[in-house]
Amino acid sequence: MSYANKKRWAVRSGDALTRRRIYLLPNKSGIVFIVTCVLMIGFGLNYENNLVLFMALFALSVLITSVYYSYENMKGLSVSYMDPPNNIHAGDSIYIPLYMKNEKHDHVTREMHVMTGLGPDIFIENVHSGHHTQLTCPCPWRGYFEIPVIRMESTYPLGLIRGFSYCFFEEMILVYPKIISCEYILQKETGIGSASRSEHRSSNSRGRDEISGLKKYTPGDPINLIDWKQLALGRGLMVKDFSADDAMDMYLTEASIKSRDLEEQISMLTYAVIDLSQRNIQFGFRFREIFITPDSGSEHRQRILRELALYQPVS
Amino acid sequence: MLVTDNKSLMIMGGIFVTCSLMSIFHIYIGVVVICIAAIVLRIMSATHVIKPLNRFYIRVISFIGIVVLTVSAVVTPNLADTFISLLMMGCSLKFLEYANKRDLYVQCCALLFLTIIPLIFHYQFYVMIYIIVMCIMIIWAFVSITHVQSVKEDLRLLLKIILPAVPVTIVMFLVLPRTGAFWVIPNLDKTQSGISSTLNIDGLGDMSKSDKLVARVVFHGNIPSSRYFRALVYEKYSAEGWTEGDDDRNKRRTLAFYKYLPGSKAQPQPLAAKTDYDIILENTGTPYIPTLRYSYTNMRRVFYLSTDVYTTNNNGSGRQYYHFTYLPDKSPQSERLGTRQSDNTLYYSEYNNESTQAFVKQITAEAENDREKVQAILKFFSSGQFKYTLTPGRYSRASFLDDFLFKRKQGYCVHYASAMALMLRMAGIPSRVVGGYMGGEVNSDENYVTLREYDAHAWVEAYVDHKWTEYDPTALIANWNYSSEGESVIGMSNGIRAEDSLLSSLDKIREFIDMQWTMFILNFDSERQQSLFKGSIAAILGLVLLAFAAYVAILMLTSGDKKRVRLAPELIIMRKAVKAILKNEPQNIEIWHTYGHLSDILTQKNSPYAAVFTDMYALYLSIHYKPAGREKTVMMSELKRKFGILKRI
């Protein structure tokens, strides 16, 4: 159960918890404690035993005092979202890195539970100002993932009063489509979207020395064409293959994969894009309304994956 | 399975053991054995001597415990002891299985309830030590379950929590409405002492051997020289002994079921002489309040009976406080004697004690009125042929009078009072025996009298000239001038002198504290509340506000962190630098985590501060981890210089 409906009670990420945003209520143990005190008071009144009354009232007074210390424990704490994680795909668990600090530099918040209601809770025994932690929650769908409202709670100092507060984040995380490994064939096509391509290329053209792929190193190839990255990846010595023919680009299209289901197609294409990108192969992308001119590199890959992640079919 | 550190377990075990020891006489022996076994097993498993018990063994132990408890309850049926034993056993068995933290909290709550059990039986002022220790330990148990930290940190936190709670507790204690009992409850402490409801011929004899405290009577004025404290009046006589009259008995029954019945009070008369006195009555297990004759009170929980004695509507649970006013000069013109009361107070068995009947007729034959008849009977007792002894041997109930008056001629107050009362009845004078206490140990410094069990006494009242007049035949036999100060007859015979137990000044201090404790703590009731606040809401609100102010003041004093962290000078400079940057930087920088991170952000944003701050950060890192020395001083100067540059940007 997420705490999305608690957003109006929540504090914005990075803002310190204040009196207005810290909620204090007895937990189940606290209710048992109160009931015990009430029983003791009843016993003391009925038996006209002032000593019993004194003990019961003392226990209640301590409970009242602990409310203040529960508040003080959480006061001034702020949670902010740190750098977003990269390359999250649907179906993965998403890690939400959090940074916790306190207005009072030397204040330590004790017994802190942080939870999203979607993934596992985390428990931090002592939250020093500047504490780093990360929450995990599942992320089943592609597209923009809204960081869930988090609940922070602590039962310090007596375990009878639960101090809790909510925190919401304005940041979104882009979740790429799920990866389904498959076989694919790049389509060698010409004249596709020539107008837009020419436009595109006009801005991205690097002349005729375009790298179209890789080929095995043969003695005599210039050393400055060796792709060291491939060597580092253990694929042996490869040299960048410059093609003079840019009229016949390789394209990853709907026809490259064998599937009719949209989500499956997107997942398979995601796999293909990542695979091609890892192999540093230049390719273009065409899928329904999405068209991206041939290119290579991580920026190209991320651009395609972003388009795929956000793709909504025109009904 | 142990889910917390051993510290919380030790504290909880300590609470349990203390409560058990304080109530040990009210726990069945079998249950004590089960409790010890459970604690031992728990300690062994916590210290890894044995494996934690599995659920099967715990259930077996629980089953044995239930069987033991049931058998004990059947053999010695006592509701209170059964309840206490059940509670103790439940707590001890719970020690064996902890599944999670919540179990521990629930166990702690059960222990909190358990701590009040000893307070049923112990009410002396030194029980305050127990209360303080238990309060601290219970809160400590909660603290140590919640957060594992060192004992020193625990104690510091305890101080912070407990200190503000004290004024709140005191004020709540003072202003909490004392409603009295919601329902009629039996006295959990079944031990009875003092005067009993039936006085048989051998009655009070055992009490002569006991110096158990019954009551303290504090006089706000001169201590009366004649101190006959009436507890109850025996009007009915039968072979079983003396019992109360029908009116008094019916009134007590009514009070037992209707606690808020308005009691008929003895109306005060506008007399010049009066002495206020407070009675601090120990737990006698009976509702009888020993009072001087012709006393009155306005206390709502005290009820006046037709025989001029007072009773309460509970069976002496705990130590009770009562306030009375004594009117020594009061002497009623006439007192009513109802038909039934007349029948009761004239009854004797005509078929027994024929010699006595004949003797009474003989000695009162020449008397012209009741007063002369009484004098004739008193003269017989003062003739010197009787002997006062606490060990007269057993008398036959049927022929007691003949045997006592004409053969053995020895006994103590019960014998003399019974004999005189019956002789008066034989002479046609309504009479009754009064049970109570006489004399007592006088503490003239503190102006109070201590009544102990050996002060128990019985005397006679005769209805002469339309009013009840007191006579004490025992005083004549024991040759004791009852108009002077001194101990009771039984007390003298027992050989315990009043001054012996009060020689020590420490004892006097203890007595004084104990009395104040009883008056102002144990018996702080609605009447005392009203007298304290005088019905003023403003006074109550003032007190609450005062407590709140004290609460806030203590919170502020204790919650502030006294420890000031002394910052390194290089850190101070860096902080100032950051403050200056954030104030003057045209581009908004919201989130930064470390100086390095801020440096990166400034560089990314092409901030004019970027270069200088990056240099400062590098210097800061070098300085911060460098031991003190000349080089560090030089670097500090450089850092200051850079800061100056940064400020000028």
Task: Describe, in plain words, how this protein is organized in 3D.
The complex is a heterodimer of chains A (315) and B (649). Chain A is of the alpha+beta class. Chain A is built from 6 helices and 18 strands. In chain A, strand 16, helix 5 and strand 17 form a beta-alpha-beta unit. The two termini of chain A are 31 Å apart. The model of chain A is unreliable at 193-210 (pLDDT under 50). In chain B, helix 13 links the parallel strand 11 and strand 12 (410-411). In chain B, strands 7-10-4-1-15-14 form a 6-stranded antiparallel beta sheet. In chain B, strands 2, 3, 6, 13, 16 and 17 form a 6-stranded antiparallel beta sheet that branches. A 3-stranded antiparallel beta sheet of chain B has the order 5-9-8, with no helix packed on it. Chain B has helices at residues 6-22, 29-46, 55-75, 79-94, 101-114, 118-121, 127-146, 151-175, 246-257, 339-346, 354-363, 370-381, 400-408, 413-426, 473-477, 489-494, 505-522, 526-533, 537-559, 569-584, 595-604, 610-624, 630-648; strands spanning 213-220, 228-238, 241-244, 275-281, 288-289, 291-292, 295-296, 302-304, 310-312, 320-326, 387-388, 410-411, 431-438, 441-443, 448-452, 456-464, 467-471. Chain B folds into 3 domains: 6-147, no CATH class; 206-502, no CATH class; 569-648, no CATH class. In chain B, helix 1 (6-22) packs parallel to helix 5 (101-114), helix 4 (79-94) packs antiparallel against helix 5 (101-114) and helix 20 (569-584) runs parallel beside helix 23. With 649 residues, chain B is α+β, with helices and mostly antiparallel strands. Chains A and B meet through helix 1 and helix 2 of A and helix 5, helix 7, helix 8 and helix 19 of B.
What's the arrangement of secondary structure elements?
The complex is a heterodimer of chains A (315) and B (649).
Chain A: E1 11-12, E2 23-26, H1 28-46, H2 50-74, E3 77-81, E4 88-89, E5 93-102, E6 108-115, E7 122-128, E8 131-138, E9 143-146, E10 150-154, E11 161-168, E12 172-176, E13 187-189, H3 194-204, E14 211-216, H4 228-232, E15 238-242, E16 249-253, H5 262-278, E17 283-287, E18 290-295, H6 298-310
Parallel strand pairs in A: 1-11, 4-12, 16-17
Antiparallel strand pairs in A: 2-11, 3-5, 5-8, 6-7, 6-10, 9-12, 10-11, 13-16, 14-15, 17-18
Helix pairs in contact in A: 1-2, 5-6
Chain B: H1 6-22, H2 29-46, H3 55-75, H4 79-94, H5 101-114, H6 118-121, H7 127-146, H8 151-175, E1 213-220, E2 228-238, E3 241-244, H9 246-257, E4 275-281, E5 288-289, E6 291-292, E7 295-296, E8 302-304, E9 310-312, E10 320-326, H10 339-346, H11 354-363, H12 370-381, E11 387-388, H13 400-408, E12 410-411, H14 413-426, E13 431-438, E14 441-443, E15 448-452, E16 456-464, E17 467-471, H15 473-477, H16 489-494, H17 505-522, H18 526-533, H19 537-559, H20 569-584, H21 595-604, H22 610-624, H23 630-648
Parallel strand pairs in B: 11-12
Antiparallel strand pairs in B: 1-4, 1-15, 2-3, 2-6, 2-13, 4-10, 5-9, 7-10, 8-9, 13-16, 14-15, 16-17
